[in-house]
Amino acid sequence: MSQLIPPRKSATGALALETYGLTKRFGSFTAMDQVSLRIAPGTVHALLGENGAGKSTLVKCIAGFQQAEEGSIMIDGHEQDIANPVVARALGIGMVYQHFTLAPGMTVAENLLLAADRVPKLIDWKKKRAELESFLATTPFSLNLDACPEELAAGEKQKLELLKQLFLKPRLLILDEPTSVLTPQEADEVLGHVREFARSGQCTVIIITHKFREVMAYADAVTVLRRGKAVHHCMVNATTPIMLAQAMMGEASAVMAATGHAADSSSSTATEGPLKSMHSDSKEGAKNSPTVLQIKGLTALGDRGMLAVRGVDFFVQSGEILGIAGVSGNGQRELMEALVGQRARLSGQVNVMGEPYSATREENHRLKVRSLPEEPLRNACVSDLSVAENMALRDFDQAPLQQGGVLRFPLWRSRARQWIAEYGIKTQGERAPIRSLSGGNVQRSVLARELAGDINVLIAANPVFGLDFAAVREIHARLREVRARGAGVLLISEDLDELLELADRIIVMSEGRMVFEVSAAQADRHVLGAHMGGGNH
């Protein structure tokens, strides 16, 4: 083993990174198993893999937040003991997290200065402001130095997180899902700048993403992790999305991707121009089908007492998936909650099957309305109840689950076992508390409950957020099945790729209003993005 040397603070420019046999265990669980990879200086290297594949563990070890029990990390050919983030920072390693780490009550300028390891007790603001303005002039991002993060849109906050790291001139920049809250234009802007930053020789970049489109468009090389092991390394120009899907999931999944059932339409290698819906089972006759859900003039207040949903009008027809696109924070959550009865409606009308609908339990049964809310453990489950009990929440008081006023628990449990098998839910059993399940398995449990029986309307909000490749593919297939059965599906999603894959029509929601509508077959990613960003209204 080579001799450890101290970090060299004077080193500048993109670094070369290698890992050899990195292994990290948490108790008896091996999260990262003998991972070896090589990243050339000045390149963008993508990490792909399902949730739990080891991506986050790997980058946390590189960034000093965790320590591997076995293996070594080489920086510029020298082995380094990255014992903590301070050591990582001294080596020039910076990381942008998926979730914001901004100080909300401080200005953009103050947040940028706080990113440094040491902040002087007295700050010469005239000098520092000039320094910050000079720095911003070297980036394509325009942010008001006097604004506070609470005043910024989600995309602007993500840019500020990136700027915090770029201001420190990192030699290695790690990005964890950096585009999850960005419009397509913002995503291209951020990733394009990062790629040019790397190609200029100033920095090496590792990007964790679940979008094949981003890998194909912006990365030079890619490593696929599966169950803690690095199973595939290649140059991007020598691979395809289907090959990457095969490495992530295995041969069967690659075949599914090849036949048009990939986890998301970002598997297309196209990066601009019209992107058509990838499903071949779209019901072309939906425009002549009956309307199953009609919303007229719906308004609702947000959590702070301001209008969040502003006079919304739209409809969903039988056998159709209508997608609602928008950047987070533009009223989608409040719309969903107003439709399913979790938030009061200020005004407007909601009709299902031609009848007024106020989301009562009786109406849900009679009109056959189902919902898949975001964060199902919080919004669609009782966490301390068992899997079987949660699966019975919709119809526990109806025959055959009750008879003569007596709840028939054995039937609850036997049906739950059937659904657990049918949906491939990984659980210790139907009696296990639902909070003990992973996010994907909670969502599968809710799906089993909500998709049973006849359905007229299904309302779903970000149904695959945070889920891995396999769960995404499965849930998308279930949504297609609901449409094929003649139901109308309202799909609210912040993932434009998901909508381009699944929806028949797409409506863009911005600042609480519906501002643009297009058929998915004619949708253009950048036109949608312009409306999502508020640029065309």
List keywords for this structure.
alpha/beta, Rossmann fold, 18 helices, six-stranded mixed β-sheet, 24% strand, 537 residues, disordered N terminus
Question: Which helices and strands, and how do they pair?
Answer:
Layout: E1 17-26, E2 29-39, E3 44-48, H1 55-62, E4 70-75, E5 78-80, H2 85-90, E6 93-96, H3 108-114, H4 125-137, H5 154-167, E7 172-176, H6 184-199, E8 204-208, H7 212-218, E9 221-226, E10 229-235, H8 241-249, H9 251-258, E11 291-301, E12 307-317, E13 320-325, H10 332-340, E14 347-352, E15 355-356, H11 361-367, E16 369-372, H12 376-379, H13 387-391, E17 402-403, E18 406-407, H14 409-423, H15 439-450, E19 457-461, H16 469-484, E20 488-492, H17 496-502, E21 505-510, E22 513-519, H18 525-532
Name the CATH superfamily assignment of the largest domain.
Answer: P-loop containing nucleotide triphosphate hydrolases
Q: For the CA atoms, what is the radius of gyration?
A: 25 Å
The CATH architecture of the largest domain comes to: 3-Layer(aba) Sandwich
**Contiguous helical run count:** 18
Indicate the overall shape.
globular
Report the β-strand fraction as a percent range.
15-25%
For the record, the CATH class of the largest domain is Alpha Beta
> What is the end-to-end distance?
62 Å
Largest sheet: 6 strands, mixed
- What CATH calls the topology of the largest domain is Rossmann fold
Describe the strand arrangement of the main beta sheet, using strand numbers: 6-7-8-3-9-10
Helix content: 25-40%
What is the SS-derived class?
A: alpha/beta
Poorly predicted parts: 1-10, 252-285
* Rounded average pLDDT: 84
Q: What is the total number of structural domains? A: 3
How many runs of DSSP E, i.e. beta strands? 22
